[in-house]
Structure prediction request, 361 residues.
Amino acid sequence: MPVVDVHTHVYPPSFMALLRSRTSAPYVREFPDNPSAGSRLVILPAEDTASTSRGRPVGPEYYNIKEKIAFMDTHKIDISVISLANPWLDFLPSKQAAETARRVNDDVERMCGEYLGRLYAFGTLPLSAPATDVVEEIERLGTLKHMRGVIMGTSGVGSGLDDPALDPIYEALEKTGQLVFLHPHYGLPNSVYGPRASDYGHVLPLALGFPLETTIAVTRMLLSGVFDRFQKLKVLLAHSGGTLPFLAGRIESCVAHDAHLKKEGKMANHRSIWSVLKENIHLDAVIYSHVALKAAIDASGSDRIMFGTDHPFFPPLEEGEKEWLSFRTNYQSITTALGEDQKQADMVLGGNAMKILGLAG
Prediction:
């Protein structure tokens, strides 16, 4: 059974050129006060400070597809489903978005074509453009040989994933059968981490902010009836759904006991979170723990879990280290969580992705 990585990112040349041309976040540049740090990727305005978390180093592993293949070969990954990493195209003015999306998606499609059978992709949407332009790109992506869905952040068109303005986009995704890879980016307000948060590098926003961002976004989709209106919408949640598998019961209980929702009649015929988890949602296995992965499996079923690495993020800190700790931890979490059931482990490591995404190794 092939090993398939469904959570692995790339910044294609066209996107890198865009980031290097910018002077405010998101952008890539060198800092005069720290020339030895080399090029740094600054994704959020909060990172654009002289703290321990100012951006992150960006090397060829981010944009050279040969580096991706080398990583795959080192770790015996047969197929990768690559996607643009955050911040995608959310920051672009409306007039630029559609053309840029086509250029970036064509760039990624070209990359996949260079390594037939090894690379597939999730496309990027021009969400700041008019909905008609977004729908047109969704339909175009469905004609590209290596595209298997789209990646989307939690902001949607600027007001969250429960925004009614997204309905034409959800309708197009449902109609074309394209999966949505939902990925966090914006995190939580820095104030929630306290006055010394910058002393702790990226740990608080990445370990806590990202998972909670995903959980909040999907809960808002549930509460607003997105999954009631689009019952065949397919969503892949990054990082095993954030905290959703663990908090699903609490969310459902709060819905059942909310007097406002009852008075407004908003939840009378809504689908339960458990139904959505088992019928609409897929989860990656980028959770770094067999304890957490068991919760994901219990919530959605092992047939809806897919292996991922989050490459090129979380690289080794020791020079010369070949095997990435992030890969090893996620791989071992799968084998530990599923115990002696090698068949199920093989499905999570690759079989599920082959079936769900229609891949051909």
Summary: Residues 60 and 67 are 7 Å apart (CA to CA). The chain has a mean pLDDT of 94. The longest strand covers residues 4-10. The longest helix spans residues 94-114.
